[in-house]
Structure formats: C-alpha cells, structure tokens
Amino acid sequence: MSLSLQQRLNKRSRSRVGRERTNWWATGILGICALAVLAPLFVTVSMAFKSAKQAVDGKAFSLPKPFSIEGFTAAWNLVNFPRAFTISLVITLVAVLGAVLVASMASYAIHRNWSKRFYRFSFYYLLGAMFLPFPVLALSQVKLTGLFGLDNPAGVAILHVMFGLSFNVLLFTSFLRGLPGELEESARIDGASNWTTYWRIIFPLLAPMSATVAIFAFLSSWNDFMMPSLIIAEQADQTLPVVQQLFQTQFSNNYHVSFASYLMAMAPSVVAYLFTQRWVMSGLTQGAVKS
Amino acid sequence: MTLTAPAKPSSGKKHAAPAQPVKRQRIDATYFGFLVPALICFTIAIAVPAIMGIFFSFTDSVGFGDYNIIGLANYAALFTDPAIIGAYSFTIGFALVTVVLTNALAFLLAVGLTAQIRARVALRTIFVMPMVISGIVIAYVFNFLFSNTLPTVGEHLGIEVLKSSLLSNPDLAWLSIVIVTAWQAIPSAMLIYIAGLMAIPYDLYEASSLDGASAIGQLMHVTLPLIVGYIGINVIIGFKNFLGAYDIIVGLTNGGPGVKTRSIAMTIFTGFERGDYAYQMANATVFFIISLIIALLQLRLTNKGQAK
C-alpha cells in the first residue's frame, strides 16, 4: 500500500517536473495548520519544564525560564509513574501479542477449514461482535470480571484482545485468501505438521498484516481510558492514562507537575511513532482503509 | 440467539468426526486448538455480556440480589426520560457537527499533502501525530488551554464570550468537545482521503487541464466525484466513533456544565452509581441497535465501493 502510494507520488512529481513548480501556497497553509497540531504539544512540553514559581502564572506559551525538572520529579512520585507505566506496558504487550497470535491462529484454522460448517459458523460468530461498542457491554463486563477475579490489569488485557478479535480475524482471513498456496503445499509434502506449517510458513507470510494489527492494537490499548477506568477496581493498579485524573481533583494549580505527568504519559507513543514513522504510516493507512 | 448457535455444532462435530474420516480431510487437533480456546474466551468476554445485557434490560435488577421481569417498562421509561433524550440529542448533534468539520478539514489536508509541496514527509508526520496520543491526556491539555489561556486572550482582545472559560459556558461547552475530537480524529480520515486521492489516475487531471479546467474546477468535477465513496466511508466511521464519545468529554467538561454535554456512554455508566442497572442496560441496548444500523450502512457502502 505505502509503496504504491509512494511510487505514485514520486511518479507524479517526476511527470510534473518542469511544468509545475512547488506549490508554495499549499506548503504555507499546511505549515500554519501544522502549528495547530503542534501548539498543544508545545504547551505541554514548555509547561512541563517550568519551575513551580513560573508555572503558577498559567501563561501557556511562555518558554520555561529557568529550565526546571522539578515537575517531573514531583509527578514521578505523585502518580507512582514507574508502577503505572509498567502496568500500561504489560497490558499493551499482552494485548498486542494476543491480537496478533490469537487472531492469526484462529484465522488460519478458519481459512484452512472453510469447507467445514463449524469453522464457517465460527467466522460469522466472531464477526458478529464487530459492531458492539464497549459501552454496550460495559455494565455486564464489570460484573463478570469482578466475578472471575479479573477486575485487574489482566482482565483489561484479555478484554482488549477479545474486543479486537472480530476485526483482526476479518483482516487476517482476507489476507490469507490472497496468499499463494504453493509454499504451504510444499511444506506439507515435506511432512510438516499443521503447527510447523503455521509457525514456519504462514506466520512469516502474514507479517505485513501482523504489523498493521499490532500497530492498531498498540494504540488502542496504550491509550485506552474507558475500559481500565471501569474494569480495574484497585486504584493503585491503574494504567498511565487513568492516573492522570489525579490532577483534576487535587494539585490542580501545580501546572508544572500535571503537565510533566501528561508529557510522560504521551511521550512513549509519540517517540515510538517518530522512530517507526515510515513503517507505521503504511500500517495506519492500510488499517484505516480496511476499516 | 444466533450468537450462541455455533457452539453446538462444535461439540457435535468433534464426536461425529471419527465416524466419517473417509471424507478426504482428517480431523485435526491443531486447528481445534487454534480456534476453540479463542472462541471460548470470546464467548465469555463478549457474547455472554451481550446476552446478559439484553436479558437484564427486561428486568428491574439493581445490579445484585433479586429481580423481576418487567417486560418493556424500562424501554418505555427511556423514551420519556429527559436525561436520556438530552444525552441522545447532545451526542447525535455533536457527532454530526464533528463529522462535517473533521471530514472537511481532513479532505483539504489530504488535497494539500498530495499537491506539489515541500517538506511533505515532515508535514504528514506532524498531521498524523494526534492519532497516537491518548484522548484523555490531550483533553486535559486542552482543558487547561480553554480554561486559562483562552480567557486571557479574550481579555486582551476584549471579546466578551471568551473572557470566561469556554468549558463552563452552557451554550458553548460542546464546541470545545467538537474541537478536540476533530483534532484527534482528523488524521485517520486524512489517511483514507490520501489513499483515495492516490487512486485517481493522473491522466484525468492532464486531460481536464488541457480542456482548460481551473484548479477549483478540477477539484469540483474530477476529484470530488471520484472520491465520493471514500467520503461515505469516512462519514460513517466517524459518526460511529463520535457516538461513543467518552474520553475527551471526561477530560474537558465531564458532562458539564450541569448535564449539558453528557454523552450516551456517560449515561450508560451511571448505571453503576444509582441503582439504575437494568434501566441503563435498556439504554445500552438501544445504543447497540443504533450502532448496528450504522454498521450495516457502512457494510453496504463498503461493498458498493468494492463492486465498482
């Protein structure tokens, strides 16, 4: 997807070379629009590095002077950052691995056995939940997770995997249908078991789709607020986005502390995105178009 | 319900399979192992709560203890409850406005990003960034801007409306939610539009410019008609997502002032607090039916798009 997109752009710019020059108007307008995206992020960073004395005035766009990290040290302890971060990270890792492995295995089983009624039924059964928004199930799920002793981060991770399952199975099965069967056949002739065929042949072939699934699973799990805030009963076990609530009720005037905390909550996904930008972009486009 | 039906053939098939191995394919435990655990978890995590929800919506349960089946009474009460009507009209109105704003801006950005511009990669990287940021956290940042920075700007410019916080203005608080929601939702719509614009053959632009079409004329008569399917998909996806609005509202107004900006999801969650368990289950069921209708519309649109 991204390749053809990129190729097209390159092609287009080549074909236009000499006839049309850079559109400075468009560049300028887009630059101004980019400021609207960056402004709140700039405010977050600059507020976070202010000293307590300077932050009190609440001037959003002034630069930190002097540069101070006291907000970070305070926020680190106040929200127990290491704990919240670790809990968020573990939930997200389980959700991403679960999304890729559970959905690809289920999809492979369904794809291979499409002629059997049970697998066909299962496919439509899983798909049926694609349109169920979380608020619809929330009340019952809170009750059930409490009953099963899963009103904790483990429960949230499981629910994240299960909520993504419908859409991910749809993505994987449609991708599997487009794969050539020869590799798989030759593996079978060589006596590979079903598991070996899946793990050695199919799973690597699924890589591009797995990347898309993983990116979406990462973003929706890492940034989720609704589900952990309702499911996790113990306040000390809350995830990074949820613990930010603390600053709405207490410490509401220590802007440097709250913004340092917001920045620490945002930074991991933004930094991860910037480093994997190219690769993520193709995954996002693919997922966005398919959804 | 049809949801539980597939579970039965599974056990039936399992036992029946050895009796009919002649049918070319031998039954394989690996495939079962791949699928069945996922099906069981899915049933407990998704299907059971869904059925529970629908069942309890016909009762007077408060979330625990005894309950009686009371038929459609909860539903009848829903349609005359000002809190529910308020939440539905707020959420639907907010979703409509946000869909229009998001798509208009996303489309223009996509057109800009596929034009002959400088710093394309850098700009695109910036525009996609809101997509990776947590909704609640960015809402808290905007909360600060709306309640501290904007009033200061209002003081300086002498604009009366802006002098007090936008978030506590009963008539305009919704606008803050629209702005932040659009800020975050634009990237994914924009990526879809970019993909759509990339799919338009360049020859069409060459031909129309030979015929003397202006840039605006090309936009209206070449780009728009060819991208109309993508607009449909974006509008439906956006509308569906905005109807479920929660995080950003919690971060900005928390439903206030009063209950002016309380969304459907927020009313459903009050079922925990006030013993409205069964009543809010009925609310959730109505919300589900609405989501389902939108989803079916989306499916129809997507299929149409593929058929073309």
From TrEMBL, chain A:
Membrane topology (UniProt): Multi-pass membrane protein
Entry keywords, A to Z: Cell membrane, Membrane, Transmembrane, Transmembrane helix, Transport
Membrane-spanning intervals of the chain: 21-43, 85-110, 122-142, 154-176, 197-219, 255-275
Keyword Transmembrane helix annotated: yes
ABC transmembrane type-1 domain span: 85-276
PROSITE patterns linked to this entry: ABC_TM1 (PS50928)
Pfam families reported in the protein's UniProt record: BPD_transp_1
Chief place where the protein resides: membrane
Protein localization: Cell membrane
Gene Ontology biological process terms, A to Z: transmembrane transport
Domain of life: Bacteria
UniProt keyword Transmembrane present: yes
SUPFAM superfamilies (UniProt xref): MetI-like
One of the record's GO cellular component terms: plasma membrane
Family: Belongs to the binding-protein-dependent transport system permease family.
Name of the protein in question: Carbohydrate ABC transporter permease
Native source species: Glutamicibacter halophytocola
